[in-house]
Structure prediction request, 515 residues.
Amino acid sequence: MNIISEAVVKILMILFINLTIVAYLVLVERKVSAYIQNRIGPNRVGPWGLLQPLADIIKLFFKEDIVPKAVNKFIHSLAPIISVVVAFSTFAVIPFGDKITIFGTTYKLVIADVNVGVLIILALTSLGVYGITLSGWASNNKYSLLGGLRSAAQMISYELSLGISLIGVLMMTESLRLTQIVEFQNGYILGFIPKWNIFLQPLGFIIFLVASFAETNRLPFDLPEAETELVGGYHVEYTGMKFGLFFLAEYAAMITASAFIVTIYLGGWQFPFVEYFNLSPFMLSLLQIGAFAFKVWLVLLFFIVIRWTIPRFRYDQLMNIGWKVMLPASIANVILTAFLIYFNLL
Amino acid sequence: MNEFLKKSEIKRLKNLTFLQRLYIPEILKGIRITLRQIFKPSFTIQYPEQKFIKPESFRGRPVLVEENGVERCVACGLCSRVCPALAIDVQSAETELEKERYPEIFEINMLRCIFCGFCEEVCPEEAIIMSSDYELSFTDYNSAIYGKDKLLVPIEKVQDRLDHLHRTR
Ligand code: SF4
Ligand code: SF4
Prediction:
């Protein structure tokens, strides 16, 4: 009973925090893009536009929900739900801190500390493509269908390199449990560089990062919704809150992807040199949660800046990079790591 | 394209260096440019509070010049004739004044007007000119039809525009 209630509280907290972050991530994205383009961005609703997300949500709720006649009604409504559920449920296995002791009870700061965490994340993110592909097909619109097809092709191509680039890390940590992967990154290389996987697996990190961009449909890999070619891609036929759900899913997927990157490659909640500070355990836990949040936001900002820097790939370029560059590179990374481990160099 | 340019003449960045083909340094360069932009001042004008400085040649809504209490217009109808949007309606009538004719009705449908300034250009009396007034809003069709009551503007207020016209014509 206690375990269940603990889990429910954690789930509600994570859900609430994630929804808030999504809302403000949209605002941050609009603000950052505005500054990059020498504009100001939303600044009318509340001070510095801080209430803009609220206004957006209210607007989406009051919009008419138009369902075109020719669509497959059931799948048309199911698709956004799949996207959102997948995007949010992935967060269940990501540790956002070590342990926290409140009133004598110690809680693990992860909803489900399962021993196949990495596999769960990979499985759930690959389910996400169903949301997009089904919406493209159910909309009965050629642009949507093209968007859905592109999405399917893109996800399949990049999931390969995503998975294979992870193998390097898994070989070193010898575990699929995410908390263990984070524990592994505790310590230092040569005494001063934090022993994060980004420093042990730079090639794997770059491949994983690029593949994450492709998985979350962010520019330069946003071919499924390429506005200039496909009007809006898979969500052309969606309005109101159903469109809102896709929007939510895209940003939630971004957050999950950043959290995953942070957990696997950037040391998770590890805060370097913290053992010299002599903090009380409670403060230490808070600092670690803060470090995790900080790293996630840095990766999110990186996502945003990349979006406003690099133009969209052409479809053949996308496939070329995926199959001819990323896949061989990730396999090479695996072989290299295997050799290094065999000769006890890692 | 190929008819005019031989294939060898098409300029393309071939022979990229190894670093360029790696693509990642180039991405970093791009990010640097993007990040630099963040710290540059923005061009935004915060509209209702802050208004842009209009150049002399700015064309706002057309107005009729009022001199000594009467309009200059002699109701020749040229503006109505030239107006590409068919926005102007002039009905002439006789008057005791020296100009002999005056517009009994002068209406501009501001929903039709495209602010082209042809009426100003064609008018022989400099009676209709473009003002600097651009903030118009209506709540129904009838209020968008500006009669003489709204169009007539004392000459002092539009002197700047008249001067500009004299200088540039
Ligand atoms: S500005 Fe152009 S459109 Fe407007 S009333 Fe004059 S001629 Fe017609
Ligand atoms: S405004 Fe000028 S062009 Fe138009 S009717 Fe009057 S005098 Fe003629």
In short: Residues 62 and 130 of chain B are 4 Å apart (CA to CA). Residues 62-168 of chain B form a domain with the Alpha-Beta Plaits fold (CATH 3.30.70.3270). Chain B has six helices and seven strands.
